[in-house]
Amino acid sequence: DWKTHPDPERAATLYSKGILRFHETGKPFFMNMDLRMSKEDQDRELLALYKQSSVEWGCPVTCKLQGDVAVGEGVTRYFFSALIQRLKAGFTINLGNAESTCLFEGEPDHLVPSSSQFLIDGDLFLVAGRMLGHSFLHGGPRLSGLSRAIVHVLVGDSPETATVQIEDCPDHDIREIIKLLDGDAELSDDERKAVLDLCLSWDLPGPTNTNRRWLFERLLWHAVIGRRLRQLKQIRKGLKETKVWSLLIERKDVQIFPKESEYSLTPQILLPYIRWPTENSADEDDDDDCPLENKCRISGYFRQFIETASSPHLKELVKFWIGWEVPSGDMAVEIINGLLPKSSTCFCTLRLPGHYTSYSHFQEDLLSCIGTSDFGFGII
């Protein structure tokens, strides 16, 4: 039972599988993206897809990439990876004042919803909640790096009891003004005016000798939480619509919104998922098969790459390999006759050429190839 299972991740898996099983005979949710369109048009279609109402998000997902020959589960993984990437880095949509639209802003592990009134009025945080819940239900990536204070409110706890840090305030000008109240140093006339102007704009009293600490905490709370209550309400509504809310309130130990450090990918996490080539894995009828000596050498290069790569590079590798950056299943490695590394995301298979005789050449080509997964992955 997901409510009582001692392992939070296993409990999350049991919960998601139960939702998907209940809806397995429902109308499939069709996701389509034309890679020949501009990035802005692609992002507009994604947003329109998740603005639909009365959708059963637990139903089977059918995905298609137009302009790319890729098919199958790899395309589905690509879609969910693209959703979370857009939520984190921004949608390539110009709303008149920027080339991209970011729904979240701030530093890693201190991300908060944007305070843009346009995004609130457009229900884009409801869209974000649906995207987050939909990806979670289908085993996809999760949004990492949110402020712990924001997560505290998102999972149903009282906004007034959230522990807010100064780093959670994304506006550095406001942050510097609030920091003036942290301590006992006498404020200059200009500093006092800056603090007073901020207090008046948020209907708070001006600074005195007795309310300084209280005012520091109230200004910080309003800068991080108070200005974002409507956004958080929309996100929660999206999570409820995708049926993830019950898990959130029943199992607060499930990290639906992990810290950036907790969501980093390390060699120790990735290596157990890999099925390496063996002496007996050769197929006499396969023209691409390589001699055993080449398999051993390239396997050694690949292990060295994994053991020395940064977390962002490992995530790029896994995304190139299986379609998203979450290691899963049986991730096979094949050594073949070929020019460049390629993958079959649907079968979770990475194919590495056996012609390399130096690690530096192997590393250079592999880094170049894994950086292309955002542009589709069909064989041309």
Produce a short descriptive summary.
This protein has 15 helices and eight strands. The radius of gyration is 24 Å and the shape is globular. GO terms for molecular function: ubiquitin-protein transferase activity.
Topology:
Elements: H1 8-22, E1 29-34, H2 39-50, E2 61-66, H3 73-89, E3 104-105, E4 112-113, H4 117-121, H5 124-137, H6 148-154, H7 172-179, H8 189-201, H9 212-224, H10 229-241, H11 245-250, H12 267-270, E5 274-275, H13 292-308, H14 311-322, E6 331-336, E7 342-344, E8 349-353, H15 359-370
Parallel strand pairs: 1-2, 5-6, 6-8
Antiparallel strand pairs: 3-4, 7-8
Helix pairs in contact: 3-5, 5-10, 7-9, 14-15
CATH superfamily of the largest domain: Hect, E3 ligase catalytic domains
Poorly predicted ranges:
none
* Assembly category: single chain
Overall pLDDT score: 89
Overall CATH class of the largest domain = Alpha Beta
* Radius of gyration over C-alpha positions, nearest whole angstrom: 24 Å
Order of helices and strands: HEHEHEEHHHHHHHHHEHHEEEH
Report, as a whole number of angstroms, the end-to-end distance: 46 Å
Strand order of the largest sheet: 5-6-8-7
- Count of β-strands: 8
How much of the sequence lies in strands comes to 5-15%
Biggest sheet character: 4 strands, mixed
Category by helix and strand content: alpha/beta
